[in-house]
Design goal:
This protein is an alpha/beta fold and about 220 residues long. It folds into three domains: about 30 residues; about 120 residues, Vaccinia Virus protein VP39 (Rossmann fold); about 35 residues, no CATH class. The protein has seven helices and five strands, in the order H-H-H-E-H-E-H-E-E-H-E-H. Strand 4, helix 6 and strand 5 form a beta-alpha-beta unit.
Length: about 220
């Protein structure tokens, strides 16, 4: 008869994760949230962290790819473009864009050190280091020179910046004349009619805004 040992670190991580999910009073900052989530992504292919674009997708994996493709299409990424991708997660979209749109270069900024390390390893394994340059840095105080990029992207992350307004100011600073900016964001739905629907809407938004810290200054409607 044999007994299996339990890794204390894994157990602590699991307890922290459960506490974050189910404890309504547990609040973490952005880097802490993503350090906790680590590579526990809900997708089966890649490490996507966006909620997807579902017009034609049947799975979350397909929806996440469709969301990245939609951004690239809307901002018209071409082979001549130097792209800045802010809040790149594990760089799934950057890898996708290099493979499908072939921009001249992609620079990524991300404040979560563990994601930067993991994303760099993935890019290195695919031998894309010469095309994708991933850096640790803030979207609101970009360690980048003026007038550097043709395209700036933010895929489902701007709602967490302190603040979105400061990010936009930085994005316009680093964009070249005629440059393009595209953002996929999370916005509250128009106010529902009826007390029941209104209450459900307010509670669900409060839960999302609390678990994935959405700054009050970033809550705006279409």
């Amino acid at each position: 008869m044999s007994s299996a040992s339990v890794n204390p670190c894994s157990l602590r991580e699991s307890l922290r994760y459960l506490n974050w999910v189910y404890n309504p009073f547990q609040s973490l900052d952005v880097a802490q949230v993503y350090d906790l989530l680590s590579t526990r992504g809900p997708t089966e292919r890649g490490l996507w962290l966006n909620l997807g674009y579902w017009r034609e997708a049947g799975t979350l994996d397909d929806a996440c790819v469709a969301m990245a493709d939609l951004l690239a299409e809307r901002v018209s990424i071409t082979g001549a473009d130097r792209v800045l991708d802010v809040g790149f997660g594990f760089a799934d979209q950057d890898i996708r864009w290099v493979q499908t749109r072939a921009p001249r270069a992609i620079v990524g900024l991300n404040i979560t050190a563990s994601q930067v390390t993991g994303a760099r390893a993935r890019v290195a394994n695919l031998r894309l280091n010469d095309r994708i340059d991933l850096r640790e840095g803030s979207a609101t105080v970009m360690p980048l020179p003026d007038v550097t990029f043709d395209v700036v992207t933010a895929l489902k992350c701007a709602f967490r910046f302190r603040t979105c307004e400061r990010f936009l100011a930085e994005a316009f600073r680093v964009l070249s004349p005629g440059g393009r900016l595209v953002v996929a964001d999370i916005l509250p739905m128009p106010t529902a009619s009826g007390w029941g629907a209104y209450l459900q809407q307010r509670v669900s938004w409060a839960m999302v805004a609390g678990k994935f810290p959405i700054q009050k200054e970033n809550i705006y409607t279409r």
